[in-house]
Design a protein that fits this description.
mainly alpha
Length: 88
């Protein structure tokens, strides 16, 4: 993963509200997959308002073991998919 990213809450051109929603979605997914005591959870909480914590969060995401990282990224991408219209 690069030092900077253009996905999830790190994506360019997001409104403040959308970025906050993405931080909180990522934090909820991390809470479920990593457990409430994992230090990544606190970094994600701080990243909502602190650009330095946002950079730390990317580095911590990169440092996760491969399987939990893959699961977390997969859940993040599913949470951020555009909604699909219901069949009529």
């Amino acid at each position: 993963m690069p030092a900077s990213a253009d996905f999830g809450p790190w994506a360019n051109n997001l409104s403040d509200a959308e970025r906050l929603a993405r931080w909180r979605g990522l934090r909820a997914a991390a809470f479920l997959l990593l457990g409430s005591a994992h230090p990544f959870i606190e970094t994600l909480r701080r990243a909502e308002t602190d650009p330095d914590a946002a950079r730390c969060a990317l580095a911590e995401l990169e440092a996760l073991p491969p399987l939990p990282r893959r699961r977390l990224l997969s859940m993040l991408m599913r949470l951020q998919e555009p909604s699909r219209a219901a069949p009529q």
